[in-house]
Amino acid sequence: MDVMPILALISLRQNDWNLESEKIVECEGKKTPGLYRYRAGKKKAEQAAWEFVNENKDLHFDLTTILPSVVCCFTSCQSPMEANHRLIASGLRRK
């Protein structure tokens, strides 16, 4: 399956969160593949960080987050887009 056309349709915004990985972890528990546990944990950690910053505005925090697919590149990737393509394709194959 070629997922490149799907990539063109994806536009993430600050209110978009990965809901699927957390549901998979809830359903499969300890049997959940590591990448899904990582994604669910990343989402929870980022939400907690934003909540902390919003509740402690007097501390004057600047918070920067990253999109893991850009830094979790396969060693054979030629570009970040190829890494995104592979990660999305691996998620689509799981269904």
Structure commentary:
The radius of gyration is 15 Å and the shape is globular. The two termini are 13 Å apart. The chain has helices spanning 4-9, 20-28, 34-55, 68-71, 80-94. It has 95 residues and is an all-alpha fold. Helix 2 (20-28) crosses helix 3 (34-55). The chain has one domain. The protein has 5 helices and no strands.
Shape: globular
Order of helices and strands: HHHHH
Strand elements, count: 0
Report the uncertain regions: none
Main pleated-sheet profile: none
What attributes does this structure have?
single chain, 95 residues, mainly alpha, 5 helices, 59% helix
Write a brief structural summary:
By secondary structure, the protein is mainly alpha-helical.
